[in-house]
TrEMBL record:
InterPro entries: SAM-dependent_MTases_sf. It comes from the Eukaryota. Pfam families: Methyltransf_24. This is Uncharacterized protein. Keywords: Membrane, Transmembrane, Transmembrane helix. The chain crosses the membrane at residues 20-40.
């Protein structure tokens, strides 16, 4: 009897041990998971650092909020960024514009300040360049005869037009013809360093070069002479940044500003920002290449962002973007 009871106890103990092992293993796993969860960093500390605010001009509202789609039209994710004054300090446009001078004084002021009082058309062309220049009635340009020019000139009736990015002067000459046809006395200031861009000679091999100096500037002047537009067109042969700063400092404002220079985002952003500074109240700033793919649609991204931060509405006229000043 005792032997049978002893055997029963051994079987019961063996059964309990077999059952206890998986239970103990389960408890061990549960404790391990709990300890790991409690020791993990909090959700707040695991978040990535806040995105750095992008650089904007002085006109950017300090409480502006932007998304990544403002910079990349192909992006679907949204990153909210709040811009504060400290983050903007290093990127402000600090140039203070002078009071506007009379439009009638614009040409004389620039001839005096830029050319020591002598028109660049005086005694043109110089002997060393004359044999190399072409007299032509067909000037290479891009969108230079678009309907947008007549639409805006009829609307604004400008006294002063500033063109940023002139190349050989096709659009400037077209605007000069339009203003004369409409009976307007308009000065058209053509900002360009007249150096082209690296590699452009591959596409324009007929433009002569002397000692590494491409003669874009002289050919531009020759085109203005050929079309008899030397009285309404004046070159400003410097980089867009330095030229627009000086126009601002000298009080030279425009009723129309055309932006058609660099196609990358930063060049377009700089030209639009500084061009808008010299725009008279009620004036219009516009430009080409809104649909150009260069630099991941760099011009379009710059225009869209500038319009957003300044509360402006973009209008499209053919291949051109248009912004009306407030």
């Amino acid at each position: 009897m005792k032997t049978e009871q002893h055997n029963n106890n051994k079987r019961l103990l063996s059964s309990l041990l077999r059952t206890a092992k998986p239970v103990a293993y389960f408890i061990f796993l549960l404790l391990t998971y709990a300890l790991g969860y409690l020791s993990a960093p909090s959700a707040r500390s695991s978040q990535p650092p806040q995105q750095q605010a992008p650089p904007f001009a002085s006109s950017t509202p300090l409480n502006a909020v932007f998304s990544s789609s403002d910079f990349d039209s192909t992006s679907n994710s949204v990153i909210r960024v709040t811009v504060n004054s400290t983050e903007l300090d290093s990127f402000r446009v600090t140039t203070r514009c002078a009071d506007p001078i009379s439009p009638e004084l614009v040409r004389r002021t620039l001839v005096d300040r830029l050319f020591n009082g002598t028109s660049p058309f005086s005694n043109f062309p110089p002997p060393h360049a004359a044999p190399l220049l072409r007299r032509t009635k067909k000037i290479k340009g891009w969108g230079s005869n678009g309907a947008v020019f007549e639409n805006l000139i009829r609307r604004v009736k400008p006294h002063v037009i500033v063109e940023v990015g002139t190349f050989l002067g096709a659009s400037a000459i077209h605007m000069a013809e339009l203003t004369q046809r409409l009976g307007l006395s308009t000065q058209i200031l053509c900002i360009d360093d007249f150096r082209g861009w690296a590699g452009f000679i591959d596409r324009f091999s007929k433009i002569p070069m002397v000692n590494g100096d491409v003669l874009l500037y002289f050919q531009f002047l020759m085109n203005a002479v050929n079309f008899n537009k030397t009285g309404s067109i004046l070159p400003v042969p410097f980089s867009s940044g330095s030229a627009l700063i000086k126009l601002c400092e000298w009080g030279v404002y425009a009723d129309l500003v055309e932006i058609d220079a660099g196609h990358d985002f930063f060049s377009a952003w700089s030209d639009i920002t500084r061009g808008y500074q010299i725009l008279r109240p009620g004036g219009i700033i516009f430009g080409h290449d809104y649909f150009t793919a260069a630099d991941n649609r760099g011009v379009r991204r710059a225009v869209d962002l500038f319009a957003k931060v300044n509360g402006l509405k973009i209008k499209i006229d053919g291949q051109h973007w248009v912004l009306h000043s407030t």
